[in-house]
## 1
Amino acid sequence: MKDRYVYYTLALISVLWFLVAMEILRGLVARTSFPEYPVSWRKVPRSPKFTEKKHSLIRALERTDTELINTTLTGPLLPRYNLSAPGQYGKGVFINMSTLTEEELLRYNDGYEKNGFNQFVSDMIPVSRYVGDVRHPSCQRKTYRNDLPSASVVIIFYNEAWSVLWRTIHSIWNTTPHQLLHEIILVDDASVQEHLGKRLDQEIAKYPKIRLVRAGKRSGLIQARNLGFSHVQAEVAVFLDSHCECTEGWLEPLLQRIAVDYRNVAIPLTDNINSDTFEYVGSTLNHVFIGGLTFDLYFAWIPIPEKEEKRRVSLTDPIRSPTHLGCCLAISKRFFVELGTYDPELRIWGGENMELSFKTWMCGGRMEIIPCSQVGHLFRRVMPYSWEGDGYRTMIRNSLRVAEVWMDQYKKIYYDRIYYSQNDIDIGDVLSRKAIRERLQCKPFDWYIRNIYPQLYIPIGCKATGQIKINNICIEAHTGESSFGKPVHANDCVYLGTSQHWTWTRENTIRRDEGCLVYNGIHSVVMGPCTALSDYIRWEFTQDNYIRSYVGQRNMCMELNRQEGLVIVRKCTGSPLQKWKWKRRTINLT
């Protein structure tokens, strides 16, 4: 009899465990996203038959994906994490391509080509991803005032991958106190991919705090942000790219700074989401960089100045930043309106972050990086979509408008960077933008340089500027820190090619921003920092047009190696390959 009771008890326990397991499995399936698998310049050989087969396979895959997607995201956006799924805790997902089927390989390559990142991996990761609490322990202990303003989060997207877009949305919802989140405003900049059409309308209709605004035609990130801002009802507007992931406690520190002064523009620490593996790489407060600029009017990461380090009491104190990256920021609605929003004549992308940075500081505001706010940003490998006409020319046009309105006499340095072609580009009327400066009694750009960015190198007193060339071959190199130690190349000269612009400085360096041409002591010219002034970075541009190194007896000259497309150093021989053309001129700010 006793054995029978034991048998029935064990059987009952087995049944109960089975029911529990089925319920857990049902929950995991409900919480796992199956976004579509819409990848890369990494091509596989394709015959006509293969291409035809590819398109039929992709159409079949898209039908399958649509069925899967429609089984997910059907309830309110609650913080529900399948912690056993790929990518949780911010981990990267690594793909062994040799194990992929033909269909999977198509999916893998197609995702890179469409997005400039690994969509195949993104689609394996649930849209509700838990990256962990990446904040510094001191940030986790911070408390914030009870009367923080509410925020509208504005997200601009154009042909964004479904899984990436929805992961951005979920990360906001899962990490934001709902009393502080007034709404999420999605602005579609005239996307053409099918999954961002009717299906997106139907999906968003399920969520009362998400609004979808569609642009009638493509206008680019800048004007789409202005469009989204026109719908903001909260006291604070937060602008985010559509490929971000917000983390625990990201919003409160931003709102706190704006609550202290409505003219504070609050920038989160920008963490990196790897474009290949989607690993979330958090920042550490001991190694924070702030926003700077080059005189190409591009953003540049720079170290925190010693003066600013001394001003701050703790690692969690806000950090004053001359500029911001542009992907993520919070600004009060009142201050953004006072500043005239983004210039309505800036097109597509580029220059808007410089404009907002300059006028924030010059017109009575402050731009700060907030260490206790961390937002991950996916940096694409390449820009996967086209601009209107000549995209590079569009960026120069935008930068010229910013320079004309805000940079005063320093705009001449930008003119020099674009080879004094400012009169060849129609930038439109800027009188209304200058009127904003007058109305707000904004400070001059010289004040900005002296007080906000005194470490910026100003190339006045130079002795030659522009392209350094032999025939139509120009010296070309990028000058960022990631290029230090790399060989300097020689390529066909390009009209408006800012990476081919060089200045022979008053210190006898050949420089662009923080990068200098360096003789390595053997036969190579490499890119390096300009901080350590030594003979290895000093050059003489002689009257007979040779570029001599200061090293040793000054008998080593810069030479063009046509075969390798490199700039090298050889003993001065009078060879035509050592005779360079370079315009002898200076930059005068008066």
Note: The radius of gyration is 28 Å.
## 2
Amino acid sequence: MHMHSVVLRVRMAILAAAGLLCVAVAPTAAASQDCEGLGGGDRIGNAVVVLAQPVAAGGYTAADGVRLTGMPSFCRIFAVASSHPDSHILIELWMPQADKWNGKFLGIGNGGNAGKIGSSSLAGGLKRGYAAASTDMGSSPAAVPGVEFNFGNGRPEAIKDFGYRATHEMTVLSKDIIARYYGKAADRSYFVGCSTGGNQSLSEAQKFPADYDGIIAGAPAHNRTHMHVHYSALRELGLQPGASVPMPLMVAWQHAIVKACAGRDGGAPSDKFLTNPLQCTVSPRLLSCSRAKDKSACLSDVQIGTLEKIYGGMRNPRTGEVYYHPDVRGAEESIFAAYNPPIFPSSGYDITRWILPRDRPISSFDFDHDLKALDDRYATELNAMDPDLSAFAGRGGKLIIYHGWADGIISPLGSLDYYRQITGGSLPREQFARLFMVPGMGHCASGPGATDFGQLLDIRPEGVVRDDILEALEHWVEKGTAPDRLMAGKTQQQYSIPPFAMAGPVPEARPVCAFPALPRYDGKGDSLKASSFRCVRANYPDFPRPAPAYLR
């Protein structure tokens, strides 16, 4: 595989992840307004509606260049919001015709560094009958190749918009316009996002608990300052003499992990992934050159030490404290990309420049004092780590978090740890929040397992066996039926980097279980069939947890 192709696949996986949250109450209009009458430069709150455009049913080429087919007719709203004189937030709201509207509003998260509005998830929401909205998060020109997170250099207000303000502005404006267009407010409001979108989800639940009735947070990048510093540390680690593990060796190591642990962690022996990586403790010394006959296909002591550092958690060099949740075994495909400079060379994902003086290179970042300075300046604005969801829960809000066990972009242990800390005042956690850890799923979607449960908002094809996570959330909010499991179906894309693929069929369907349960193989049935698995309470061995100072 050409290196350029690998780079492109990895960047697409990161950037496309998700795509795919004082409260203002939308007014209830006495009568509906036509679409074109909503635009033309009208100011609504902090926003100006620059375009209100009726779009005919059929094919539609969206602003991001994606050609969408089978579209219903809709009213397209394009607005610019400014939460501060220096902010510039782009918002799109797509509203179906009144007779096709399900009476609900759907906020949709962005991905990566945002900077533009993705159309595919908007189309998915629209086809389901929602009035659907998304925002560029105020981070333009982040979508320009090479700019990425450099959008925040010298732009503190853009960082605030990206962190939390843009999503709230989108929500307030959308509710107002929906009420004007349909002559009534939305009956329910939901938000769905993954990765950066998952951070938007948790930010909404924590900071603006009245914005949404139900929220889905996939693989949330909610410990963002430490996540990005983790990327920086991995890159620096990969630059150390002899530390880099080339792709063939990383592939061999991941395959050795699966061979050693699959079927011993609750899954089936034929699985090409781990069901519970915390129960897999195989050491990289398994491939040590001191044991190997083929010295060209083994790990040196330096490479072994590198992998042990990754699984043990990156640490403050002075205090020894872990500052970000460790990566897990079975996620090497993504880990490889993150710490190999030839694959992940860009400083575009490095936010240390936001606090470093211009005369200091990013390689000079101090993972002690500079990390504290980064947190002191931006943790409150970027991170969504507050486990107290009592305000959200108290008004009946419901939260579903999901995370793939094979995610090497954002550690799944961060979601597991956060969920364990969630509180809801007098309400038990399970009464308003559920966590689904997905075996064999990478970042937001894909992977060698059964990983499709409607999280990308596509319409379930005829005859496909799978549940739909948004429908599950709706049933919980509207009917009081909490989801204990989701049936996940087979996905088409299995790997972002094809050499990591293992030969053999993937599961046709498998249950994804609400924490603390995981799917357990019955030991005799067809391992490709969901009927051979049931949800059973699982054991989660301890893992290195970040110090309290790094959970803010």
Note: The radius of gyration is 23 Å.
## 3
Amino acid sequence: MKDTLGFGLPDTIVSDNGPAFIGEEFQRFTRRNGIRHVRTAPHRPVSDRVYARGFGSGPVWSPGVVGSLLGATMAEVRLDDGRLWRRHFDQLRSAGDSAPKNRTETDVCDFGRLRGRRDLSGGEPDESWLEDDQREDPVVISDRRPAADAGQPEQSSESPGVQSSPAARLPSETQERFDAELRLWIEEGWLRPYNEQEHGPVRGLIPLMAVTQEAKDKVRPVLDYRELNEHLVAHTAEADVCRDQLRKWRQHGDDVAVIDLKKAFLQLYVAQELWPFQTVIVDGQRHCLTRVGFGLSVASGIMRAVVREVLDQSPEIAKALLPYADDLLVNETLISAERVTEHFAAYGLSCKSPERVADEAGARMLGLRVRRQSGGDGTLRWSRDGVTPAEPPGVLTRRSIFAWAGQLTSHVPVAGWLRPAAAWLKRAANKVTKDWDSPITDDDLRKQVSDLARRLAECDPARGQWCVSGDSVTVWTDASSIARGVVLSDPTTGEVIEDAAWLRSDSDSDMHINLSELDAALNGMNMAVAWGFKRVILRTDSVTVQRWLTDALTGRARLRTKAQSEMLVRRRVAVFKQLSSEYDLVVTVDNGDDAMAASTDDEQEEEIACPVPTAHVPGQLAIEAPAAVEPSELTPAVAPTEQTEPCTGG
């Protein structure tokens, strides 16, 4: 204080609620000298009394105390009446000031990235109280890149007032398709002109965004629900997980068809009393969305509940159908797809025409293309839906590499060498960058990206057998100094069902290889359990791990190890044994090397072959490989040891 007061008395002192600042002596000093005392730091309230913005009925501003921070811009506030709110810093006001004036119910809470008060007569938001770097506007995003903040949007001369379409971010063709889709929404009555006398005071203004879906050749209007979602509790315990649903779909038979609901979420009505909370501005006029908006955190749960209710009306149809969001998989050996379409239409839900795997083009199932194999035994095969994304990003950044890696491997059940290779690129990008959007100039990483793209263009390993049946599976596991991997294969056909790989972290680089082999075995068991298999043949090339697990299952001998990691080994073996017991699994553990040696040449040959050179990922991508490991030792981690091998799904 002495150093500060050397320049004269300040107009304002900002402090926390420490004892020195809330004592009577300090209060007398500030009052005597006409100093304004603010007991919180601007935009960084921590453990202080504040006023929090309310959005429902009751006072607009409610007093409380900040309990904890929830990230860089959110705080948890406990109100004086005991309620617990989560609020953005911009929705909090210092309690050191006089209480903010409670505004009338006709004032608008402008959800999303538009912050400030908006004049209902059509004026611009009052943002005079915001700092320059806080004035943000809605953005246009693409499905190839996460949303990023943009500058002030320019108004298109063709469609003035559309907040969601800054000319700098949307090409003219995309703009036209976006505006055409909005006009369709208005014509269909999904967006209605808002009338305050009929619908009541406006309670929320939500920015529109454009999402370009290149795979479906669509431009979808999406409401920016990020702010509104902060006030909704989305229970995720029953949320559908795509990977889990994909496993169920592959076990649903081979005479199947897919039905997609038309404009699924826009078929779900919203109660009229909720219309004031989701208004948008289109062509300078306020509209309200009368249906469930895509992007609302509870939208998928609502859709799931509606589909479940419709299925509950017919046990026969429910038995033959597996739903996932708005996609319905029908086993036509039990009931026809047309019958399912009629059933949903009877309850007001329109469906598109069914896609059947028997059709020449096959059917699109959860992002994959499934069709019958031509010229063979007629089994169902899956592959990517559309062109393989072999072309790397034009500008290499951490964000673009992560997005590309996700497109390559995230939704495919089998990726072979590509899965650990993509994971390695992500790790390398993390190491050579400090943020998400700075261009990468590292020559080694750029060469690695080019090498992966070249090899992927030559042969994409993401394909394989679709149908999975029976209760038996063969689980192959392996580990090295770089990664550990698991492959599940059909014991009858030898086809790969699913694979997975995990790079070893820097923290466990000193872990003994047998422990990593044991971890791979546990990962394989977990994958087998997720599929519901009951008979498991586990194959590992570690004789030690084979002995540990066999002895644990048979009980014929105690675990024999005196290594420093004895307790870690015992814990893993105990978990393995417990999994086998709790899920009533019949497990056989044998040596993978023996099984591989017994394979015939016919089993290793495939219809389509492509070279896979040994110069693959680790030989070039191991930027920071352990010093004690020679480059030749890295190859088995994610690449075959042969000079060439067939391009299979595994």
Note: The two ends are 69 Å apart (CA to CA).
